[in-house]
Structure to design on (324 residues):
């Protein structure tokens, strides 16, 4: 069940929805039991130099003080939606369902938008592109900068576009988001990757503009989900298995990309003890990039499970590197 919740301090100055003009941007922040982190992300949105936006905070079944924290922001542009816990993808789709902006942008609850974030996006959307992406600064738990990444070439697997698709680094026109089908509910990882594998080919097919801003506009926290163990490894496998199975034809436009994603799925399968699945994915990696020795080596390990268990250990899968 999803229910919009009226928070007195938030809603006090809000005009009736029928009288309120649609904003340019709907910023969607999804959160679950991270009330302590939320104020920084929300504050960074409310401090934007560009003011024509609404902020939709989707509480994905929190049991902490999230509702109270949101109620302390006395700003009519803030909207709060509570839903039963259903995962990040479903929460993002819920945020869009309750949003009214012409463009949608997602920000994680532990990330931070620079004050000119929406202003720069606003300049870029004057020509009504379907998608605009920007760069990011990535920091660790102590706030130390690990790297700065700008949009770059994504290759044929992503319809030949340039971009960078992680939370806060892209805005998508509402009609394009809906035409692509939104985020895939239930997918445990690689949410943006799976989404843009549908979105960007659609943009190419329909002739919709996809453009970039060559500067970092958000600060993203690299901590994320650091669980190490069977449960997280299985989630990684489930996500990668879905992506390479459902999007094999699209990924095959870039042999390196299909081989890489297949290898990640194969190694994750081996680490949860599913060696038939590991061999299936690693054989695809070998067929796709037969000159890559590392894929042959992984397949050899997966073909002898006792050796594979020693080499990889159990449930130590690494998160795949991606643009999403």
């Amino acid at each position: 069940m999803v229910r919009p919740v009226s928070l007195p301090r938030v809603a006090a100055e809000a005009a009736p929805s029928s009288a309120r003009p649609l904003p340019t941007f709907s910023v969607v922040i999804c959160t679950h039991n991270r009330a302590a982190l939320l104020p920084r992300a929300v504050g960074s949105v409310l401090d934007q130099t560009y003011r024509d936006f609404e902020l939709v905070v989707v509480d994905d079944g929190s049991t902490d003080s999230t509702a109270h924290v949101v109620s302390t922001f006395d700003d009519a542009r803030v909207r709060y939606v509570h839903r039963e816990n259903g995962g990040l993808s479903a929460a993002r789709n819920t945020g869009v369902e309750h949003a009214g902006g012409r463009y949608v942008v997602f920000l994680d609850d532990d990330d931070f938008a620079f004050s000119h974030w929406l202003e720069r996006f606003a300049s870029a959307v004057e020509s009504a592109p379907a998608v605009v992406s920007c760069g990011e600064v990535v920091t660790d738990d102590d706030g130390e900068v690990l790297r700065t990444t700008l949009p770059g070439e994504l290759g044929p697997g992503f319809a030949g576009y340039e971009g960078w698709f992680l939370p806060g680094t892209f805005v998508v026109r509402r009609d394009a988001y809906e035409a692509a089908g939104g985020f895939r509910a239930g997918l445990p990882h690689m949410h943006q990757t799976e989404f843009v594998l549908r979105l960007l080919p659609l943009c190419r097919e329909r002739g919709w503009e996809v453009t970039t801003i060559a500067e970092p506009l958000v600060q993203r926290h690299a901590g994320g989900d650091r669980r190490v163990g069977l449960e997280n490894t299985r989630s990684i496998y489930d996500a990668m298995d879905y992506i390479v199975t459902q999007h094999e034809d699209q990924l095959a436009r870039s042999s390196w990309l299909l081989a890489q994603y297949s290898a990640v799925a194969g190694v994750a399968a081996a680490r949860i003890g599913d060696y038939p699945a590991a061999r299936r994915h690693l054989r695809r990696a070998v067929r796709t990039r037969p000159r890559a020795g590392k894929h042959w080596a992984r397949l050899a390990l997966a073909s002898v499970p006792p050796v594979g268990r020693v080499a990889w250990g159990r449930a130590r899968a690494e998160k795949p590197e991606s643009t999403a």
Residues 1-18, 224-228 have pLDDT under 50 and may be disordered.
